[in-house]
Design a protein that fits this description.
Length: 372
């Protein structure tokens, strides 16, 4: 890691997404390379992108976030150039790192577009950056640091609080007869194989079922619930008494256990317990990209409609001012310009530098056999 005050550029490190219909299958092959997923399955997923003209929303959303973050940093007197580098599509990490180096950057602070601890949402980003440095010949020439995992930063949590309040107001306006007992709030996280979830985090974080990944999602949900209930209790606005954590975007084989329940299975249980409305809150995600739009706005909404449930979905933070300001705050932390490291909830902020044993890749039976 570079010294705290030595960064001379910033890179938003993202998953990436296709821009045209011709990009979709090559992009999906990049994402699933080495996992043995047949093209027939990829073709099914490709239909999600074709439904929207082949372009993933993530590209415009990343551009908008960079523009908002750049404006916020400029307003604070910082003149740090910002690049975008993707793991799975253009602009690829190697190209972005090369561009930054050629522009004179020698110490780059990375902001990953994933806020939780797991192999795929943190450590794999670091490994891919290391591979890109090696491939481009920039090892030892361009040093990289990172902004901490920000699941419990107030700037990440606040937009969900505001969005949930807005969704409750909308449901009340559409159906004034709804009561707090009629509403179920379902916080959604990106599902992971159970092994990957259990190995997430380090130290005591792994003591709970689901490791740090599940524990962090539950803590974020609890913070949002406490904030919204605290603001609405005792008022005439619609509240809620019931909430749960569910999962979306599963992509593995049926034989492999993943985090459950699936969002659609969770919604299917609601009429039997008297619910009349459901609100989904995608707390795994920083923007409304394809997984959010397809899984929640199309599939989950259709499930709710089939069951006669009123439905609303809270937006991801995107370019919400609180989120952009929170990212700028954490950048200033790494620049050594802020005292203290703020977080919400009982657990303190995640370390800037993850321990060496944090979030190792899960070892599956077929991997063990191959190693023997």
């Amino acid at each position: 890691m570079p010294d705290a005050d030595s960064f001379d550029g910033i890179m938003l490190v993202s998953f990436g997404g296709p821009r045209t219909c011709d990009d979709v299958m090559p992009f999906l092959r990049n994402v699933t390379r080495g996992r043995g997923i047949p093209d027939a399955r990829l073709t099914d997923v490709a239909e999600h992108y074709y439904h929207f003209g082949g372009a993933s929303p993530i590209n415009e959303q990343n551009d908008a976030l960079v523009a908002a973050l750049d404006a916020e940093l400029h307003a604070r007197g910082h003149r740090l150039p910002i690049w975008i580098g993707n793991r799975n599509w253009d602009p690829y990490l190697g190209d972005a790192l090369t561009q930054a180096y050629q522009a004179g950057c020698r110490s780059l602070l990375t902001v990953r577009t994933s806020s939780y601890a797991s192999y795929s949402s943190c450590r794999q980003y670091t490994e891919d950056l290391d591979k890109a440095l090696a491939k481009t010949g920039l090892q030892g020439k361009l040093r990289l640091g990172k902004v901490r995992q920000f699941f419990n930063h107030p700037g990440f949590v606040a937009p969900f609080v505001a969005g949930l309040e807005h969704s409750l107001d909308r449901l009340q306006a559409d159906n004034p007869g709804l009561t707090a007992d009629d509403v179920e709030v379902i916080f959604t996280g990106h599902s992971l194989p159970l092994g990957a979830a259990r190995s997430s985090g380090f130290g005591g974080w792994r003591s709970s079922e689901g490791g740090a990944y599940v524990a962090q999602h539950r803590q974020v949900a609890e913070q949002i619930v406490a904030a919204v209930r605290g603001a609405r209790d005792g008022t005439e606005t619609l509240g809620f008494r019931h909430w749960q954590l569910a999962w979306q975007s599963r992509s593995g084989p049926a034989s492999q256990p993943w985090l459950e329940p699936d969002i659609n299975d969770a919604i299917a249980e609601l009429p039997a317990v008297g619910r009349k409305a459901v609100i989904t809150v995608p707390i795994s995600f920083i923007s409304d990209h394809m997984e959010v739009v397809w899984d929640l706005d199309i599939e989950a909404a259709a499930t709710a409609a089939r069951l006669g449930l009123d439905y609303a979905r809270v937006p991801a933070p995107g370019t919400h001012p609180a989120f952009v300001q929170g990212l700028a705050d954490m950048i200033e932390e790494r620049l050594g310009l802020r005292e203290g490291r703020i977080s919400t909830g009982a657990v303190g902020p995640w370390p800037d530098c993850c321990p060496a044993d944090c979030c190792p890749p899960a070892i599956h039976p077929h991997t063990k056999a191959a190693q023997r």
